[in-house]
Amino acid sequence: MNGRDLTLGALAGLAVAGMVAKRRRGSRDESLASLTRGVLRLPGQAPIQIKKLGAGAFATAYVTTEMTPPVVYVFTPDDVYDKELLAMARDAEPQNPHLPKVEKVGETRDQFIYAMPLYRTPLRKADSPSGWKDYAILKTCREDAYEHWDPRRLVGKRGYQINEETVTCAEATGVSPSTLEALRILVDTAANYSDDYVFEFSPRNLATDEAGTLVLLDPLFDREKLQAKRQRERRKTEQAFRGRGW
């Protein structure tokens, strides 16, 4: 990706933030999607029957029950851009098999909705020996980059620095060229949104497609947003205990 691509990406991120604020202030909008009793309604489409597949810190996933092949719909808060940056990375290099096929398909008053195929997850060695080999490299390199910093510094490494060091280590350690290319695209795309996005590699956020190819399903998270969320939850729990006199 060149400098122009990065600049356009940053402008796109600002435009999204502006649209979010406008949508939250506005009245009922017929262009918004809705989910009621297992029925997803997207503007201009027939109702879609879905059921809950799982949830993470910021996203909730649903899978269709009457489609072949099934489609996964992921709902995220409109100020969390994990899936959006994956969609942008895929648009930048659609031929890379390790970037998930993510597409934004709608939005509610305070959420974005993305569609993707139902990949096989978590990653298993039996499903993709070569993918598991790459995973082992990425996991080790990310841990080394995250943990090995000078303790005399007042702050730790930023996400971008951790990601860059992870990629450098992965290349030196022999990760596959196509996976390396996907990592570089993700690093550049994430930098358009925040310096706090950082890699995370575990079997649960990696997958394989029908051909047994490694898919980087959910490899980045906003470290600052996650820490802030956990702090809010901790304070809420502490307040609840105090309210009970414990």
What portion of residues belong to β-strands? 15-25%
Order of H and E elements? HEEEEEHEEHHHEEEEH
* Sequence of strands across the biggest β-sheet: 1-2-3-4-5-7-6
List the total number of helices: 6
The helix content, as a percent range, equals 40-55%
CATH architecture of the largest domain: 2-Layer Sandwich
Structural class: alpha+beta
Dominant shape: globular
CATH top level of the largest domain is Alpha Beta
Average pLDDT metric: 86
Counting structural domains, the number is 2
Any overview of this molecule?
42% of the residues lie in helices and 20% in strands. The chain has two domains: 3-117, Phosphorylase Kinase, domain 1 (2-Layer Sandwich); 129-230, no CATH class. Helix 4 (159-173) runs antiparallel to helix 5 (177-191). The chain has 246 residues and is of the alpha+beta class. It has helices spanning 3-25, 82-92, 129-147, 159-173, 177-191, 223-243, and strands at 34-36, 39-41, 48-55, 60-64, 71-77, 103-107, 111-117, 197-199, 207-208, 214-215, 220-222. The mean pLDDT is 86. It is globular and about 50 Å long. A hairpin with a 6-residue loop joins strand 2 and strand 3 (48-55). The strands form three sheets. It has a seven-stranded antiparallel beta sheet with strand order 1-2-3-4-5-7-6, covered by helices on one side.
